[in-house]
Design brief:
Blueprint: E1 5-11, H1 19-30, E2 35-39, H2 59-70, E3 73-77, H3 87-96, E4 109-115, H4 123-135, E5 139-140, E6 147-148, H5 164-184
Parallel strand pairs: 1-2, 1-3, 3-4, 4-5, 4-6
Bound molecules: flavin mononucleotide.
The site of flavin mononucleotide has 15 residues, from helix 1.
Length: 185
């Protein structure tokens, strides 16, 4: 049997009580046998500065890029800020996108989901993120948008996912992502 495929799961929020990170924690427990998830927080990634973008960039950036390179696929959980991708996430992806078209993000499979307060639950941010990723030559998992709308009502005070329909939805998406990845390697 093949070892599990390595999935780097990236929450696009730094908040201690981030619902996007909570969704990825829930997915960690839902992962099928052929996937292993590692959650990678973006806390240490500095703001992009082209003057520092040489020799792989500052140490936290190098670590982030190495983690992407070592992964078989990414799983990004993005919040939606003012109908768009939060700066924290875009900033980290900008670092990782260098050198252009030869970065660890080029040809890297990426699956998206998002938790947000509104009923459209990050759909607008995900649309933008897809476009951004295509600019980096990443290969976005073709799947209907996985949105967790009204997200505050779907997790309890301990940030455990309590909504059964959401749990099922996330599990189905992960299995489909695992099958899609397995067909590619
Ligand atoms: C600056 C800002 C802008 C926001 N804009 C939106 C928005 O456009 N759509 C939306 O659904 N929620 C919006 N929200 C609410 C977020 O969806 C909500 O705070 C969500 O829980 C953030 O994700 P997190 O829990 O992973 O940090 C916004 C929140 C902030 C702080």
């Amino acid at each position: 049997m093949r070892p599990p495929l390595k999935i780097l799961a990236i929450p696009g929020s730094l908040r201690a009580r981030s619902l996007n990170r909570a969704a990825l924690v829930a997915m960690h427990a839902l992962a099928p046998d052929n996937l292993s998830l590692e959650i990678y927080p973006l806390d240490d990634v500095p703001l992009y500065n082209g003057d520092l973008d040489h020799d792989g960039g500052p140490a936290p950036v190098r670590a982030f890029k190495e983690a992407i390179a070592a992964a078989d696929g990414l799983l990004i959980a993005t919040p939606e800020y003012n109908y768009g991708v939060p700066g924290v996430l875009k900033n980290a992806l900008d670092w990782a996108s260098r050198p252009a078209y030869r970065s660890p993000l080029a040809h890297k499979p990426v699956a998206l989901l998002g938790a947000a307060a509104s009923v459209v639950g990050s759909a607008r941010a995900q649309g933008q993120l897809k476009q951004v990723l295509l600019g980096m030559l990443s290969e976005v998992f073709p799947y209907p948008e996985v949105v967790i709308g009204g997200a505050h009502q779907r997790f309890d005070g301990d940030l455990r996912l309590t909504d059964e329909a959401t749990r099922e939805h996330l599990g189905t998406m992960l299995r489909a992502y695992g099958e899609w990845l397995a067909r590619r390697v």
